[in-house]
């Protein structure tokens, strides 16, 4: 079990607008107990696997995700076991875009979970990919970023543009010395930027991704 369970429980409480007291009553604990589970201070106590399983059942999420950050909220344990046994899968952490800078600086930012991936992607990391339209109400997209792959025209990349402190997803096409930049994967409109190699910091190429269903 990793300490990320605290962030996952807190996120579920906010998402469902549930109080510590309501959660405590649901799993047969006192309100103060939930507070001690979630604090990072000296009064912190650690929940048992059984208590975390009860919390997972209450929120209708998978216990392995809540306890360990493996898979996502709704990935069946059987699916992860199948991937690990039959495909020699590994897991990689998933981050929000705002945490990528810290990751690249060698820090240990909080992840939003982990996903099973084929073994050839073991050196990659996942980043939440912004999605729009009605699909975003039910699904989140995770892009797998390969920091060791050189990009070629029409690749979607995670990159930083001049003046932007945080990276974002872009499609790149280089013509001569100029790189034409489109936001995300929409190349139906005019490019939003034109830069040269020195003006764009390409962090990695998006080579594979997955979707996770929201609660």
Strand-helix topology:
Layout: H1 4-16, H2 20-27, H3 31-38, H4 49-59, H5 63-68, H6 77-86, E1 90-95, H7 100-104, E2 113-117, E3 125-129, E4 139-146, E5 156-160, E6 168-175, E7 178-183, E8 193-195, E9 201-213
Parallel strand pairs: 1-3
Antiparallel strand pairs: 1-2, 3-4, 4-9, 5-6, 5-9, 6-7, 7-8
Helix pairs in contact: 2-3
Detailed description of the structure:
The protein is an alpha+beta fold and 215 residues long. The protein has a domain at 4-69: lambda repressor-like DNA-binding domains (434 Repressor (Amino-terminal Domain)), CATH 1.10.260.40. It is 28% helix and 27% strand. It has helices at residues 4-16, 20-27, 31-38, 49-59, 63-68, 77-86, 100-104, and strands at residues 90-95, 113-117, 125-129, 139-146, 156-160, 168-175, 178-183, 193-195, 201-213. A nine-stranded mixed sheet has the order 2-1-3-4-9-5-6-7-8. Helix 2 packs across helix 3 (31-38). It is elongated, with a radius of gyration of 20 Å. The two termini are 22 Å apart. The model has no long low-confidence stretch (mean pLDDT 84).
């Amino acid at each position: 079990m990793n300490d990320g369970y605290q962030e996952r429980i807190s996120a579920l409480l906010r998402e469902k607008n549930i109080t510590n007291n309501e959660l405590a009553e649901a799993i047969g604990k006192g309100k103060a107990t939930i507070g001690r589970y979630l604090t990072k201070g000296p009064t912190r106590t650690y929940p048992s696997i059984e208590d975390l399983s009860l919390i997972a059942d209450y929120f209708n999420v998978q216990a392995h995700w809540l306890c360990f950050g493996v898979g996502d909220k709704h990935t069946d344990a059987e699916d992860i076991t199948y991937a690990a046994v039959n495909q020699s899968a590994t897991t990689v952490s998933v981050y929000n875009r705002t945490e990528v800078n810290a990751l690249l600086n060698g820090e240990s930012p909080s992840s939003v979970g982990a996903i099973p991936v084929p073994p050839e992607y073991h050196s990659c990391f996942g980043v939440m990919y912004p999605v729009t339209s009605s699909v975003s109400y039910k699904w989140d997209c995770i892009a797998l970023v390969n920091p060791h792959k050189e990009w070629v025209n029409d690749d979607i990349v995670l990159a930083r543009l001049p003046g932007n402190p945080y990276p974002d997803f872009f499609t790149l096409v280089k013509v001569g010395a100029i790189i034409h930049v489109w936001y995300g994967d929409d190349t139906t409109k005019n490019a939003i930027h034109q830069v040269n190699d020195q003006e764009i910091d390409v962090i990695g190429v998006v080579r594979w991704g997955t979707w996770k269903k929201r609660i």
